[in-house]
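Rather than argue in generalities, we reproduce a single protein record, letters for residues, whole numbers for local backbone shapes, just as it appears below:
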Amino acid sequence: MTRVIHTGDTHIGYSQYHSPVRRQDFLDAFEAVVDDAVDDGVDAVVHAGDLFHDRRPELDDLMGTISVLRRLDDAGIPFLAVVGNHESTRGGQWLDLFERLGLATRLGDEPVVVGDTAFYGLDHVPVSRRDDLDYAFADHDAEYAALVAHGLFEPFGYADWDTETVLTESDVAFDAMLLGDNHKPDTAEVADTWVTYPGSTERASASEREGRGYNLVVFDADAAGGDDRVEIRRRALDTRPFVFVSVELREGEGESRVRERVREYDLAEAVVHVEITGEGDPVTPAAVEEFATDEGALIARVTDRREVDADGEVDVSFADPEDAVRDRLDEMALSTAARDVERAVREDTVPDANVRETVKRRIEERLDEEADLGAFEPVESDAEAVEGEEADDGEEVNDGEEAGTEEADADGSESDEPDAADTDPDESTTDDPDAESGPAEATDPDPASNDGQVSMEDYL
């Protein structure tokens, strides 16, 4: 029998709402998982990717993570992990550094046997590269086998990876796939194999309303009864409370009614989201947010979803602006990468406050995928080519990097899609839009020059 904690999407270093307290919350949640692992004496902690929120974590986040991993090591509990899309670098990975320190094991195509179970790993792979995967894993002689992977797999929401293909083409017969990337916990059976997500350990957006936690996975023919061989149980984590207040204002009701509703909740040290609907009087969101913080909330956000009628009639007639933009772009001979940037700026699915993060990630992906930098060369194109590129780009707007996955505090929109931490409109993870561009990463030798951020190239 082998008992492991299956976790992932810890997103350490995420300053949600630009709050240092929230940043610490993400590290604390990971520490709580490790506390449970040590107290329960599990055989291993298996992390399915996105340990960090960013590929260049700040020094405090890095040192805090090392401190937590040392507690696991002192308890003799191995930390097995794969690399997620958020933390992935073009060279060595942070996981490699932890492995050199003796604090972690990076899973791959060779089996890592714990107890009577062989663990394998599959790092996040961009959609454009998946056709080249052969799923060739080395043989093992353990009783059970599990694949740890990071991506959006079927049959779960927003999937772009065929789970059955992975299982049928793999050289190893897996008893379970322990996944990360989708922040919503879920479990299903595919081709007689249990496939499960533990969900994120902290709420990365307001769409993640259910409680946070992780999985306890037991590999044992008798654990789940019959011949199931795998038992998956959900365990809860005590994390920062989120309070959701819905207020429907009737005609004549206004801010006082909103305050009355807010008072009905325990706001102590909570993240509070107030949603206003109905036909009532105008409300000043900033005033309600100040009131909620005065009542004890750590952070307060107000979204007024009511339509505001403009005085008088407005009759505007003009040509389709999208056509005008395309015509102008055709004249500019932009590179493929430049078109990525242009679309990120204009896309309706990308909140204004999140454009910088989206642009950064798309450029980094181009650098990863275009070794010859061909995507950065000017190209002549017509409208047909532009439309084709836009269709291809759809695969990049999901969880990995989905701009639509995030609750949009900046503009009041909200979504239930997975991995919302990928593109949080409440913040950009760097103050400098060029701070994480590819060439700069390899040429900056001094971690102190990055305002606390450190690059793998500084160590490897």
